[in-house]
Amino acid sequence: MTFVPDFGDDSSDRKICFIASKGTLDMVYPSLVMANAALGEGIETHIFFTFWGLDIVTKKHMDNLQFTWLGNTAMHPQGKKLHMPQGMAGLPGMTAVATKMMKKQIADLDVPEVPEFVQMIADAGGHLWACKMSVDMMGLTKDDMIPEVEDIISATDFIELSDGGQIVFT
Amino acid sequence: MPVITIAGNEVTVDDEGFMTDSTKWNEDMAKELAANIGIELTDAHWQVIKFLREDYAQQGETPMLRRVSNVGGVPTKELFQLFPKKPAKKMAYIAGVPKPQGCV
After folding, report:
1. A169: helix, coil or strand?
2. CB contact under 8 A, B85 and A42
3. What ipTM does the predicted assembly reach?
4. Which residues in chain B are contacts of A124 at CB distance < 8 A?
5. Of A3, A25, B13, B23, which sits 20 to 30 A from B37 (CA to CA)?
6. What pTM did the predictor assign?
7. Looking at beta carbons, which residues of chain A come within 8 Å of B85?
8. Which residues, in sequence order, are CB contacts of B91 under 8 Å at separation 6+?
9. Where are the alpha helices (DSSP H) in B60-100?
10. Is B85's Cβ below 8 Å from some Cβ in A?
11. How far is residue A31 from each of residues A66, A70, B57, B61, measured CA to CA in Å?
12. Phi/psi at A28 (nearest 5 deg)?
């Protein structure tokens, strides 16, 4: 008797398209982690970088994304039933401190920093797209982005390419 | 759990078909497991399988793709060529180690 896992090679026509719209360190990971997981499952995967999400694939910014808990009331010291005071987040230098702490926590989990993560996703066959309106608004060109970005496309182009796929907005 | 015969060895597998005891694995079984999912093992495959088994023995958990790439030294692109579509699961299946559990 044979007992072979069903790796679903022939049946998988699933497609997932992520929209990455945020550029704060905490908000870039959801689409990167899920896109990477989808690729590992053999699923056709696209990420559309729009608005602040463009920073994820912009050479100048991708290695320097920041985190602040300003406006985020769910920020607790690990394991404590305390909220970090909102006013404290606005103090000079606090964003740098919070960013450093979050980067350490992510690294402790053996999860890569953003540039390596994006490269991993591209190497795994993920398709990366930049939003035309955002690129124009921020005065960027394709040269400002890593070469793994396949093209700068319009909203209509994205709707076309996501036909039949699942769309996840982050 | 089901007991099946792989390359003449009786082993226990989980509900999906992954071996539950990696110590019962041998190279002949790897060839048969690979053939089951349409893969013919080359030297490049063996390098990955050996890394997976050594790392599992040391760490107690199946490495994710990033670790196979960074520590095992086989680039991500190549892993997707060697074990198409679902590399992490396929290489674990052939190497006789549990299905990987991590997120990244």
Report:
1. strand
2. yes
3. 0.89
4. 65, 76-77, 80
5. B23
6. 0.91
7. 7, 9, 12, 41-42
8. B48, B49, B52, B68, B79, B82, B83
9. 65-70, 76-82, 87-95
10. yes
11. 17, 22, 32, 25
12. -90, -20
